[in-house]
Amino acid sequence: MGDLPADLRALIGGERDLVANCANTAALLWHRLPRLNWVGFYFLCDGELVLGPFQGKPACTRIALGRGVCGTAALRQTTIIVPDVSQFPGHIACDQASRSECVIPLLASGRLIGVLDLDSPDLARFDAETVKVAEAIATIVADGSLLR
């Protein structure tokens, strides 16, 4: 995995555009984290999550707060790790190949701006180390949004 947070800081350092930074972040994670079939962002807009930059198959465009893993993580403003998405009530299956999921809220100065979503075709893909790195990545992206 290397030092993904340091690599991300070097990649997006000084850039102020949130969409550009999220696009590069999704691409970096896609190429550096093994066994993913989708990685991307949803942004909070008018009370719902709206699809942002991502890597993988086409995805759901809008997700209500409290719906699915993304909407639940956003509503609770806490990371949610789902080892087996078939066991998560209300899971939204944009890609039938997804078996596990990790969603991290993006909080800028304590305010929800969106989520980082990682999906895998493997059960229980997201171990403590991967979640820790993903949370650090989400913090870097959210902190960068304050530069706008």
Fill in the keyword field for this structure:
single chain; 148 residues; alpha+beta; Beta-Lactamase; six-stranded antiparallel β-sheet; 6 strands; globular
Brief summary of the model shown:
This protein is 34% helix and 28% strand. With 148 residues, it is α+β, with helices and mostly antiparallel strands.
Task: Walk me through this protein's architecture.
The mean pLDDT is 94. The protein is globular, with a radius of gyration of 14 Å. Helix 1 runs antiparallel to helix 2, helix 1 (4-12) packs parallel to helix 4 and helix 2 (18-32) packs antiparallel against helix 4. A six-stranded antiparallel beta sheet has the order 3-2-1-6-5-4, sandwiched between helices. It has helices at residues 4-12, 18-32, 68-76, 128-145; strands at 38-45, 48-56, 62-64, 80-82, 100-108, 111-120. The protein has one domain: Beta-Lactamase, CATH 3.30.450.40. The N and C termini lie far apart (29 Å). The protein is of the alpha+beta class. 34% of the residues lie in helices and 28% in strands. It has four helices and six strands.
